[in-house]
Amino acid sequence: MASKRRAHSAATVLIVEDDPDIRGALADRFRSEGYAAAVASNGADAVNYLEDNERPCAVLVDLLMPGVVGMSLLDYMRADKRLASIPVAIISASPQLAPAGYRVFPKPFDMKALVAFVRHTEAAAGNVK
Predict the structure, then answer these.
(1) What is the pLDDT of residues 12-33, one digit of tens each?
(2) Considering the chain, what percentage of its residues have pLDDT values greater than 90?
(3) Is the pLDDT of residue 6 over 60?
(4) Staple 68 to which of 36, 37, 43, 111, CB 3.0 to 4.6 Å?
């Protein structure tokens, strides 16, 4: 079934993943689903994005990355009132490291389920027309 394209500006999904192949595949898929996709290769790049851009509708984050790791990004987001309510999904080859309270997608993940997570969180926030 074809995805519904939005008539308004596309909601943005922030993808935080150090593996360029996974990052690119996720960005391509979300763009094909009608979203804008912002990418960051580590937590520091993600923090810079979050400080300089409009709030994304969801953040997909790998836990284990070089530099600022996913857990530090999650701590940063929880500490900022503006960012704390952004839905986050963890995509990780080490799902046992994920803190409680987050939706976890173990690698290799089900792309359809990940898209459904973003659509569901966007609909719950009232952003889907």
Answers:
(1) 999 999 999 999 999 999 999 9
(2) 74
(3) no
(4) 43
Q: How far is CA 80 from CA 6, 74, 83, 84, 118, in A?
A: 29, 10, 5, 6, 21
Please list the residues that pair with 51 across neighbouring strands. none
Q: Which residues, at least 6 apart from 62, have a Cβ–Cβ distance to it below 8 Å?
A: 16, 17, 18, 19, 22, 70, 90, 91, 92
Q: What distances in angstroms separate CA 103 from CA 44, 113, 114, one per listed residue?
A: 22, 11, 10
Cis amide prior to 108 (ω within 30 degrees): yes
Contacts of 98 (CB under 8 A, 6+ apart): 63, 90, 92, 104
Residue 69 is encoded by which pair of tokens? 């790791």
Contact 88, 118 (CB under 8 A): no
Question: How many whole angstroms separate alpha carbon 4 and alpha carbon 95?
Answer: 31
Which pTM does this prediction carry?
0.87
